[in-house]
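step 4 of 6: structure.
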Amino acid sequence: MKSIGNHLNFHASALQLRSRRNDILASNIANAATPNFKARDLNYDQQIRQVGGTGPLKATDSKHFNVAVKNPHQTLFYRQPINPSLDGNTVELSVEQLEFSENSLRYQTSLEFLNNRIAGLMSAIRGE
Amino acid sequence: MADINTVFDISGRAMAAQLVRLNTIASNLANAGNLASSEDEAYRSLKPVFETKYADEVRKNGIATAQAVDIVESNRLPEKLYLPDHPSADDDGFVYSAAVNIEEEYVEMMEASRQYQNNVEVITTLRTLMIRTISMGK
């Protein structure tokens, strides 16, 4: 059973992260008119590296220092506005819409990968 | 109020806030050009106050929505017009026109409807994704 879990784990985690990021981007779009709201985003690359166990600096010995960020609170960052507005709001609809459409497309991609893996497992189980 | 959990809470409440904004704009435009016999009676344009409403677990999930917490009268002064023949003119022959700037209201109406549409778009997209996720593996 564990191998089936491992087979699906990576894309399942990717799907969860994409879903979280969609919620955060939806919050930004919802607050597009609120004064002093600061747009936030999820550092997807860093998060998925943690899940996959890969990264630019991987410790090869247990005595090495671990440089990967372990604190989940640091995974959200504030967006730097391209054109700052007078009311202190850093939501730029063009940026948010772009990120949102890209993120939902990538969500669909992860979903497709998962579906293919499930279909592969099913055909192996059926033995057809 | 209840906690914010899903995208339906996020975008739904933001749409409600934008609707309050559109309602105030409609009231302002309906009263534009109204004349009154004193400065106090004259209509002042209404403006909603938006605030960010964070989820209880905002430190974990970063979710927030918008809320119209208050509606205030703008501090623009009514225009004083000299119309001695007008039935509601005061003793000196002045009437006071509603303090509404139509151009400003139009711009705000366009912005509010765009942002309403954006929230609808978010819900539509994520609902489609949810439906596809439910039928995963079929």
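step 5 of 6: annotate
 - The longest helix of chain A spans residues 93-126.
 - The interface with chain B takes residues 15, 20, 22-27, 29-35, 37, 40, 42, 72-73, 76, 93, 97, 100-101, 104, 107-108, 111, 114-115, 118-119, 122 of chain A (CB under 8 Å).
step 6 of 6: archive
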